[in-house]
Structures are given as structure tokens and as C-alpha cells.
Amino acid sequence: MTGIGRPTTVQVSAFTEPITPAALRDYLAGLRRSGAWPVVKTSMRTIGWIAIGVSLAVVIAAVVVMTAVVSDISGDPGGVGGSVTVGLVLIAVVGLVIGAGVSSHRARGRRWFRLARFAQASGLEYLPQVHDPGYSGMIFGRGGDRMSMDVVRDPARSLEVANYRYSTGSSQHRRTHRWGYITIGLKNSLPNIVLDATSNNLFLGSDLPSTLAKNQRLRLEGDFDQHFALYCPVGYEADALYLFTPDIMARFIDNAAALDVEIVDNRLLLYGRRDLSTLDEATWQWIFSIVSALEVKFAQWERWRDDRLAGTSSATEASSPAAAGAATSAAVSAPYLLRPPPGVAPQGRRLRRSVSALAVVFGIFALLVWVAVHLFQFGLFTR
């Protein structure tokens, strides 16, 4: 495979071929030299646990030796045997913990190596981690510790597949949110449109991190609404119908019904609450089938123009009578120049958010609990 939109054969050998220790060492050394080594605190956490395990083993061994010496001096041979047995068991447990940490660290390195080899064989690039990728989609820019991981991309065609993490809350309320995403660059900006897949909705509604205002929901013909809920900015309903013709809707249903979709600025993003950059051949075949199926329809989207921008490109040019006359002559000889320029008017660039019903119910419940606790504190419920 050399790029998106072309027939793709996943390089199975990249995920199955044996890894020689020398090749793995060279790859990891190259990561360090290039400055692409993943977050230091992640690897330091593993090293820290290993260090704690080693320290515990040393302490336990010292205690066992001291106990044996004391027992020998006091003439209690049974105490020696019991202490040694207990010490050996504890040391074995600590050894298992250390071994698990080392094994996990090595497994992470092997995963990076396999994905890097897969990307290279496929004409792509790979980075283990990218801090705060900075995209404008709804899962980005939220919380803290924002990180894209296992990033496989084609910079020439603005394709990127990765896993994404961010954290919200603090201390015991801290929560890590996990997503996988595919992003494809578009030739020009389009209105902010969201397709909320129905197949991955939660019990209480959408799994998207943002709740969209209901008056932006657009009902479409056929069975599209059974698979996606489409949201577009108010006033852009006709534009959404132009962009999502029946043949394009069919491609989303057939290929991407398991993912949420967002068009924002000049990007198409597809989201899932699971890792998408994996060592699984079938997942990559599915991903590239999605990309190939959608990209062939992008030419139609490139022809879209926002009529609300009509005349904005000529306003400054017509500031004088001479310029206005020249613009009129040019328009008569080439009327197509009067098409609006590429871009989106301000009112179409972002969808409006609202508060979810679940958040309202939770807020009311929390308020009632707070009121009840304080009433009990003041003794209003006691006789």
C-alpha cells in the first residue's frame, strides 16, 4: 500500500515475523536518538515499580538472614527453617512482580517495533506517541494529559490512525477517557457536521463527549436515520443534503456504521471508544476499506461553496470605481469567478452544544443529596 484510496494489502508479516533482540535494540535506540521516545513518566513508572520490588527483595533477604542468625544464637533451629521458608516465599512473590513489570515493558517495546515495521512496509510513518495532537474535533481539547498513541499516518495525504487518551477530574475522581480515531484531510473547509452512530450508543443515549442542540438534528431519507443521527448548523440543512447524497450515505452505512463521524474545518474524523491502531490484521483491513470507500466521494465535497460568503472576495477589490469597472468586465467574461471562495461562514463553523438530560438528572440528584445531608446535620429530620 502506498496511500489512501488505493487497493491495500495489510502487511501481515509485520505482525507475525519473529523479532530479533538486535533489531529491537536498534529500533529502541533509534527512538531515543530521534527524540521520539514516549512519555518519560510511563516508562519511569515501570522502572519505579521494579526498583521498589528489588528494594523489598533486599530488605526481606536481610531480615531473613538476621532472623536466622538470631535463631542460631538462641539455639532455636526450628526458627531458622521457618524464617528461611517465609523469606523465600516472599522473595518469590516479589520476583514475580518484578518479572511482570519487565515483561510488560518489553511487550510495549515489541508493540512499537511491530507497528513501526508495519508502517514502513506500507509506505506510512509511525510514532509511538504525540502530545496533544491539536485537532478541532469534539474529543480533542478536553481535559488534561491529552495524548495520541500508536500513531500511523501518511502526511502527504493527511491520513492518521491513532489511539487517544485524555483525563478529567482529580485525585479519586480522576477518569481516563479512551478513544480511537481516523482523520482524513479534505481539500477545503466544510460546515461542522456530526454523524452520531446509533450502533454504539449507551443505555441513556449518545456516547459522544458533547451533547448537541436538538434543533440541529436533520432527518434524512431512507434508512440512514436508523444508523446515524445527523447534526448540522441551523441554516445549513440544504448544504448537508448536498454533501450527503444517497450514494455517500450508503457508503457510510456500509463501511463506517460502527463509528461516530465529524466534519470540522478541513478534516473528516471518525471516532470509536476502542483502540483502532492495533496489531490486528482484520482491523487494519477494515480501516483502509473505510478510507478507500469514502475518499472516492471527496471530489463532490470539493465543489461545495458556502453561498453566505458570496461577494466577500470582491469587496476589497471594488473599493474604487476603476476597480469596480474592472471587476464587472472580468465577471462578464468569466462569470464563474463570482462563485464564493472556499471556506465556511462563521455560523456554520461549529455546532452548538447543549446540556444532556443525563447531566441534568445527575445534577438534581446531587443537589437533593446535598440538601438531605445538611438537613440531617441541622437535626431537622430528628425528633
Question: What do you see in this structure?
Answer:
This protein is an alpha+beta fold and 383 residues long. 46% of the residues lie in helices and 19% in strands. It has helices spanning 13-16, 21-34, 40-74, 77-121, 224-227, 237-243, 246-256, 281-295, 298-302, 312-315, 321-333, 357-377, and strands at 125-131, 144-154, 159-168, 175-197, 211-212, 217-218, 228-231, 260-272, 353-354. Strands 1, 2, 3, 4, 6, 7 and 8 form a seven-stranded antiparallel beta sheet that branches. Strand 2 (144-154) and strand 3 (159-168) form a beta hairpin. Helix 3 runs antiparallel to helix 4. It is extended and about 100 Å long. Mean pLDDT is 80; it is low at 1-7, 99-103, 314-321 and 323-336.
Q: Which structural class is indicated by helix and strand composition?
A: alpha+beta
Number of helices: 12
User: Approximately how much beta-strand content do the residues carry?
Assistant: 15-25%
Number of strands: 9
Helix content bin: 40-55%
State the major sheet: 7 strands, antiparallel
The N- to C-terminal Cα distance equals: 78 Å
Order of helices and strands: HHHHEEEEEEHEHHEHHHHEH
Radius of gyration: 30 Å
Mean pLDDT: 80
Describe the global form: extended
Please mark out the parts with pLDDT under 50 across 5 or more consecutive residues, or reply none.
1-7, 99-103, 314-321, 323-336
